[in-house]
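Students often ask why we bother encoding 3D structure as a string. The short answer is that it lets us treat folding as translation between two languages. Here is a chain of 239 residues written in the first language.
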Amino acid sequence: MQSILLVEDDAKLAGLLAAYLTRNGFQVQVTDDFRHVLDEFVKMEPDLVLMDVNLPQYDGYYWCRQIRTHSICPILFISARDSGMDQIMALEHGADDYITKPFQYEVVLAKVRSQLRRAYGSYAAVQQEAKVKNGPMILYPERFVLEYDERLTELTQKEAILVEALMAKAGRVVSREKLLEQMWEDQHFIDDNTLNVYITRVRRKLKELGAEEILETVRGAGYRVLDLDSSSQGKGKGK
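And here it is in the second language, the structure alphabet:
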């Protein structure tokens, strides 16, 4: 029986939704401790998470990022917020889908089953987490986590795309145009300063890891991440 962690502070709605999913063959755990959602997740190890956005203490976006540091299991948001920006934020913070309230229970069930088939079904790809490595630096693009010398920092979706584009060309300059193209399908509507903002955010994350010198600006050309594999090999030969 597949398991679902339901994080919803409307007790009546949570009870009704949990009962419906249970009748349809799922094991459902409803949390009422909104200060320790990650602890509940780690303890339960559910196959899927249903998460509200508006929660006490910390919002659903926060808990989604926390869960993504541990797992790539499907996360579906259920929220009364129906703006396009809210849905974009959910996806950028690691969610797989977004369901607006009020909703039909049949729709929630269909989306839950669809995400579970995609993640664990017979036609799902063999689950081996993607990694992008550059020496001691490892990017986990599916859960937006960057590791350096065993220290971790969380990224947003766009930050992860930016870091992946740079790490894939480690040691080489990546132009601003190429980065914009990878981060946004239609960069014509993106202010040129937006990339500067994301570069600044990534530098801040690298500084948290003690790796701020890895990202270089090449004036008039773009940006470059140092090739740490070549650097480590060079140091070894010099001994």
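Translate back mentally: The CA atoms of residues 15 and 81 lie 21 Å apart. Keep this in mind for the problem set.
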